[in-house]
Design a protein that fits this description.
This protein has helices spanning 6-11, 16-35, 38-45, 77-87, 122-137, 152-155, 165-178, 182-191, 199-204, 237-246, 255-265, 291-304, 320-334, 361-373, 404-410, 415-420, 424-431, and strands at residues 47-49, 52-55, 58-61, 67-73, 94-100, 111-115, 142-149, 208-214, 283-289, 308-311, 316-319, 341-350, 379-385, 397-401, 434-435, 446-452. With 456 residues, it is α/β, with parallel strands linked by helices. The strands form 3 sheets. Strands 10, 11, 12, 13, 14, 15 and 16 form a 7-stranded mixed beta sheet that branches.
Length: 456
């Protein structure tokens, strides 16, 4: 069981029916975390025999390669690296992969370089410089295996031109609080980087590059996952400027950022590499897992317990509070069913930080649902991050049911006040309703589980 406070969360159930719903929700989430373990995913997808590596329709004959390097970064790449080392035992030459400071992984050949997330740090830059060195020394008879997952954008910083790391950190902090989506944030990141947005592929050319990608971006757009260091960039300098203007950050951004993006719009500096660039001729991309992988596992777990399960086909995005109210409405719909029903959905909400509280997108989503679910005694909503870290907190999300509001009121807690202050963490912490896993070693967006027991 990966949920550290599993028993406490069960003990919070007011009725036997809700105890069962909590157990179902938490067990299904735990099952999903196992299913999206990078080691399980990679070992099920990669086949290595007769000195040939196969994945999907691609084959790589290792007899044709002089060196095999491993580079990359993200919250899941520690376990991804370990899996690759085990599968390709004795074949790897060297490598460097950036992972969060908090991750506790160990490898034999590939260096796991600890770096900052969600705000980049100097350790991340040092790791990227080692990756660049490996990529640039790779030749046409070398293979570069690039491991990418969510979190890679922050973990692999290399400020472009004369831009400083301090400038990049300041802009990153502003974007994370603005309510911008991950695609919008990464549009900007790609254009202030000498590594992301296809630049790594340019540096690695003419080597063969195999990208093994664990997607944390809705729809799996390759150039937005970890800001696409080895794939063509679909965005422009003008797009990056538009993002900053849309969220009223253009006048607040560091001067060096404004100067860089302005120069790019004037074609005074080179645009990020596009699809026609020969650097991508020998790049192969494989998505090894995504949000749908996790949702399928949740659904399988619930169905195995005899629960009628509906998987929403459209990924959730947008403001966390609005999504929380929407999902509460869906929970109320199924509360009138004559059988136990589950609705599961995935995606990634955004939060515009206006207050001085503490929280994350899943906690804020759950908090916004508290009042709408009040008094409905047979429903539950769980909003959970698959990487185990929801915002700058030690929780992956929270659980809400029809008794949450009453429990809060007994403690003098007003959910609306906490919502206005973006303080969902302290609200749910006081109630003991945070879900805590710690870093899971994976990262494929968020999971929303709605459960309703059969109505009497």
């Amino acid at each position: 069981m990966r949920i550290k406070n599993f028993e406490q969360l069960l003990s919070n159930a007011v009725t036997p029916s809700l105890w069962r719903l909590r157990k179902l929700a938490l067990n299904s989430f735990d099952y999903a975390l196992g299913a999206i373990s990078p080691q399980i995913l990679l070992k099920s997808r990669l086949r290595f025999a007769d000195n040939c590596l196969r994945i999907d329709q691609h084959s790589f004959d290792f007899d044709q390669f002089k060196n095999i390097y491993v580079i990359g970064g993200g919250k899941a790449t520690g376990d991804m690296t370990l899996a690759v080392e085990q599968i390709l035992d004795g074949c790897l030459t060297r490598g460097c992969v950036n992972i969060p400071h908090e991750m506790r992984c160990s490898t034999n050949v590939v260096l796991l370089n600890r770096a900052g997330h969600p705000v980049p740090d100097e350790a991340g830059v040092c790791g990227v410089r080692q990756m660049v060195e490996l990529a640039e020394q790779a030749g046409c008879d070398d293979l570069v295996i690039c491991l990418l997952s969510g979190g890679g954008s922050s973990l692999m910083p290399l400020p472009r031109g004369t831009l400083s790391l301090a400038d990049k950190k300041e802009l990153t902090a502003m974007l994370l609080k603005s309510g911008a989506s991950i695609n919008e944030i990464n549009t900007v990141r790609k254009h202030i980087s000498d590594f992301k947005g296809g630049w790594l592929a340019r540096r690695a050319y003419p080597a063969t590059v195999l990208n093994l990608i664990l997607s944390d971006v809705i729809g799996d757009p390759l150039d937005f996952i970890a800001s696409g260091p080895t794939v063509p960039d679909s965005t422009t300098f003008a797009d990056a400027v538009e993002v900053l203007q849309r969220y009223h950050l253009w006048g607040e951004a560091p001067d060096a950022v404004i100067q860089l993006l302005t120069a790019g719009c004037r074609s005074a500096i080179e645009e990020t590499p596009k699809a026609h660039d020969p650097a991508f001729e020998r790049v192969f991309n494989c998505i090894v897992g995504n949000n749908r992988s996790a949702l399928s596992a949740v659904g399988a777990s619930l169905s195995a317990n005899g629960i009628k399960t509906v998987l929403l086909p459209t990924a959730m995005s947008g403001d966390a509070a609005e999504l929380g109210r929407y999902l509460a409405g869906r929970a109320l719909e199924i509360s009138r069913s004559d059988e136990t029903v589950a609705i599961i959905a995935g995606g990634e909400a955004t939060v515009r930080v206006r207050g001085g509280g503490r929280g994350g997108r899943n906690q804020e989503l759950a908090l916004a649902a508290v009042e709408r679910l009040s008094g409905i005694d047979n429903v539950l909503l769980a909003a959970l991050a698959t990487d185990g870290i929801d915002g700058p907190t030690d929780a992956c999300g929270a659980i809400v049911d029809g008794y949450t509001l009453a429990a809060a009121q007994r403690r003098g807690l007003d959910p609306e006040q906490f919502l206005q202050n973006n303080d969902a963490y302290n609200f749910f912490n006081a109630l003991g309703e945070l879900v805590v896993t710690g870093y899971t070693g994976s990262n494929v967006n968020d999971i929303y589980i709605l459960l309703a027991a059969a109505s009497d």
